[in-house]
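Rotation project, supervised by the postdoc (A.L.). Task for the rotation student: set up a whole-complex structure prediction and record inputs and outputs verbatim in this book. Inputs entered:
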Amino acid sequence: MDILVVHLFNALLYASVLFLIAGGLSLIYGVMRIVNLAHGNLFAVGAFTTASAVGVWFAGSTSALLFLLVPIGAVAAAAIGAVVEPTLLRRFYRRPEEYQLLVTFGLLMILEDVMRFLWGPYPISASVLFEKMGSLHVGDYIYPRYNLLVIATGVLAALFLWAFIYRTKFGVVLRATSQDMRRASALGVNVNLVYVEAFTIGCFMAGLGGAIIAPSQPAVLGMGVDALVLSFIVVVIGGLGSLEGALVGALIVGVIREIGISVFPEIELAVLYLIAAGVLFVRPAGLFGRTA
Amino acid sequence: MSNRPTRRDFLSQLGVTTAAMAVGSVAGAGVAGIAHAQEKPKGTIPATPFKIGHMTFFTGAGAVLGEPMYKGNVLAAEEINAQGGLLGKRKIEILKADEAAGTDANTKEMRRLKLSEHIDMFMGITSSGNTPALGPVAEELKLLTIFIDGCTDFLFDKAVPNPRYIFRITNIQSADGSTCAVGVAQTWPNIKTYANIHPDYAYGRNCFDHFGIVTKKLLPNAKSVSEAWPKLFSTDFTPHITKTLAAKPDLLVTSLWGGDYVAFYKQALQYGLFDKMKVATTLALGSAPQSIGKDHPEGVLTGVHANYHFTYPAGNRWPLNKTFVEKYKARWNEYPNFQAEGAYTATYALKTALEKANKLIGGWPDDDAVIGQLEGMMIAGPGGYVSIRPDNHQGYKDAITGFSKNVPEYPFPILDPSRIITIPIRNITAPPGWPKGEPTSTYTWIEQTWPQMKA
Amino acid sequence: MNLLETEKLTKYFGDTHAVDRVDFTIGEGEVLALIGSNGAGKTSLVNLISGFLRPDSGRILLRGVDVTYLAVHRRIEAGIARSFQIVNLFDELTVLDNVALSVFARERMTRYFWTLSDRHPAVWDEAHEILRQFGLGQKASMLAGGIAQGERKLLDVAVAYALKPRLLFLDEPTSGVSTREKAPIMDVISSIVRSQNITAVVIEHDMDIIFKYSDRIVVMHQGVILASGSPEEIRRNETVKDAVFGPSHA
Amino acid sequence: MTSAPPASEKRSPLRIVPWAAAIAAVLAVLPWVIDPYQSILIAYGLVMAIAVLGFNLLLGYTGLLSFGHSAYFGVGAYAVAFMVKYLHVQSMELFIVGAIAASVLVTTLFGYVCVRYTRIFFSILTLALSQVLWSLAFKFFWVTGGTDGLRVPTPKLIGVATGEGEDKIRFLTHGYYYYVLVVFIVCVVVMWVVVHSPFGKALQAIRDNETRARFVGLRVRAYRFVAFLISGVFTGIAGALWVPLNGLTTPDILYWPFSGEIVFMAVLGGFRNFTGPIVGAVVFNYLKTYAVGYTVYWQALLGIVLVVLVMVLPTGIVGTARLLWAYAGRRFSR
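Outputs recorded:
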């Protein structure tokens, strides 16, 4: 029985991180109609930045300072987003998808090596925070407190985003731009500004996903590519462009992965992709997407 | 029934010893050492550089193993070059190639190195997935090769059953699982259940198979109750840890290594895994020694790929190791791992083979002459004697494993010097002439020839 | 016998009754103009008949045969073709290819992936001939995306015409071109349609053109047919004037 | 973007035949002139060219961007490996037949699912399905060898076995090179006929304007499906030819970044030209091989090439060369 609680926490843990990555991906698609293949590596940038801030640059500082440093990865990813969108991606919104996919694919490759250049080839760990928080008892088992913090972050991020998009003026502008860019523009919305903001928020989320797991999992090269395909599954299930969809998709993927590894390990990955393909086949816009 | 040997008897028959022991004195007759004085070579030797293509993981999670391999190779090359080079004339030049580019790219790159860069020799390779791919290519290219690692049995069992140009220096992979299982049988004979967490590729499955078959022989009551197969180079092991916890085994066997193992043990600590079961590993301390922190629990059976740990043989008993560790530390400011030792030894094996061949025929020896010298060579390396079997070109040295222990001298755990387990390698690997078997020859050899212990 | 009739054909878009229980008929060989203000349901009606939209209820009969839910390509085989209000061409193919494609499609040769299209001179000759008829012979080897708007309108009709339809819908064949160009375009279309004895339905706004080229006029308003008759009758019809041209229109 | 210059007369597509024959002749002579490694690289390039030609029938001619063509390449490659492992087949011709059969099977299934959608949904669907195959190849190691992959020995060409002792490099640079070259030429001719056939015209029409294509009577989905099938089979054939060259097949060629490389090659050469994919495949192969050989930052190098390419030369190498040629021609004639 207790073990089920541990499994549940694990699923939520995974879902939280996936939601942060996939939510960002979905937000960007929703507003700019661009599938950002480099998104996975913004997640990795977040992880590397936080890992090196906590584990290397400020290693040995007080825990309070180290905890404050965790979000630095999200800031780094957001900064990259804020630079890349206006300088590079903006030229591609009106071009066919193949160019959009290719330019972000190129960006993915470049970012991978930028990280290799900046952080070297080895994994970097910020495990000191993970260790400091210790574990709490769940019946016969113990569970890392830090993982609960990650889950809480995921939940808070979802709530914050929801409030932001449905309860603020900027949210209204964002939704308007997402629904009809030309009309929003005609109504006096500075569409370019909305784009750069939306892209930055999307990257911030991916970076936060990376930053928040850096203490419990080391940052390694290649993590971005793996994260990207999984978040792809999430957005495909939930619906490209839908934040609710990203949330539900992340939960589905989190739960299926946790069950899969225990019960049907050989086809765990295949099942995830098949679900994604199945959803696409039946509802190409995903469970929560608007029809194309 | 009654003539079944007892476990204790059998283990001592195997030659398993637990203690810090000497390896014997250096340089008996016919044994090549790595530090013997240079003799003047016969004939004329060209002064062109001797190019070695060195492919290993320079990037990604595998670099924890790969970089030390390269550093061992470089250290040996620098020493040899300082003495004038191979046969006093040919300076070693090392061309790096990144194994992380993927198996297919590696195949292309090996061809490029030989056909386009005209390397004289190839060294390296960390992953067991890559040697079976590259071995046949090296044979096709007629490229003299010493694989340092990538030590899957599959290479010489199946992929290249009759090698000519390729050799491999570090211990054959089945020794990992077998050594680990022998260590478990000797230390924790009462376990009834065990769980597995292995990386989902050749190495993990090899460890799983050999741990399983040896345990079946030595501890017939022990049952495998859980298997988890995370992808190689994963970082998140929480579902695998939880699956293992749920199975409530007495023991966990894991062949995770490098960055994977580091991430695993940190997460496992917070899930209390080490408190709930014994843990036996095949490669935990085999990665770069400094990569494991002092938070790692003590008393875990921490394997070193059944090959080498820099604290053994202890310095005063085996000077070769003492000087190697000192030189390596001075050059790279870190401690060597088994890959560094393997590459270092391999470079000196090459040097020795060249010198012997030169003594026989004079001039710069061709590949065939070098191969003739490498086959059957016995060389004393930092980790002890390595013998290269002529039938399968595989290097063998006595397998070791031990238990993690923190000592004040090092900022990371080392093998507990008082409890190091060594096993003569010939006793846990299929002998020459044993028919090729499935999944490995050693597996069928153990299955068919080892006695079944009493329950 | 009428070539085509619709029975209570209906299409809703949400609450809007785009086409509301319309009974529409057209006789063999007629050239009929469909007029009405924007949103009257003209294009929707054409869309329903040509298969672009599916009706919510009602029937479409072609020579008495129910074609209501027939797939588009079957309708085309049955002889219904259409042009588009906003030019719908294969912009990166040549003008000649645009027309040739229709001929290939009509002859069911587009399945041939094993022969070069150049190996079918009859098709190309016919395509050239059609272009010549439409006055586009000089533009044959230009990309369809690269010719003038008036020419594009003509080509759009030519592509539909090349299908050799019995019933051709022309959705505003002169929209988007200057007033000066309208008559020449309609002259070309009209002479071809009449010489081949094709039944045609033209949606048009320009009343001069309508009165000049059509045999009969059907007026739609808010999804229903308001009136139908000869140009002269429609010209005199007060209801039509108010509905279509607005009360202010003299 | 750029409209092609108006041609004054209709030019026969057959005019390129002499050029193609000349290039084929050069390719045939090359192994005697260049060093063996270069021949092997060209063989790799030609194999990939077949794959990208197939891919481009969808992207360039039908307007569908598949981000899952690794699947069909992998199906071809694994079909060969399975034939070796389970049926002990050695004949290269049988390998190709088997690869065609397997890729027909898989493309029929995937194509049926995928052609219902276009644009980004098509791309993602193809990607998701290719990942299913990847994860199966990855996880079912007792069948597929997992990450170790499956080895494929030197095959018999036209029934002729290569002796144990014969030099593999010589086999690759001569016997196999010519085999690849012949299959490549056959594939180029077939694809060339397909795109210049009435069917090819129909595909281009569908690419340009799906609605109008429907209204000239084309059953758009059926045409897309057939294009998908042909495309997948070409890529499958390439996969089959690639295995003996590489010596083994691993799940890497099923993983999605390999699909990305196929797209890369098409765009590098120029996907709006028939020859673009061929040029792109050969050039990319050189680019990647040398980038990997010379720097650990090869990914960044390729990434920068890609970004610059799509920004500055969206028509690819062949498209740009044609523009320059046309420009030079106009300057010259003035």
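Student's summary: The longest strand of chain C covers residues 2-13.
Supervisor addendum: The two ends of chain C are 38 Å apart (CA to CA).
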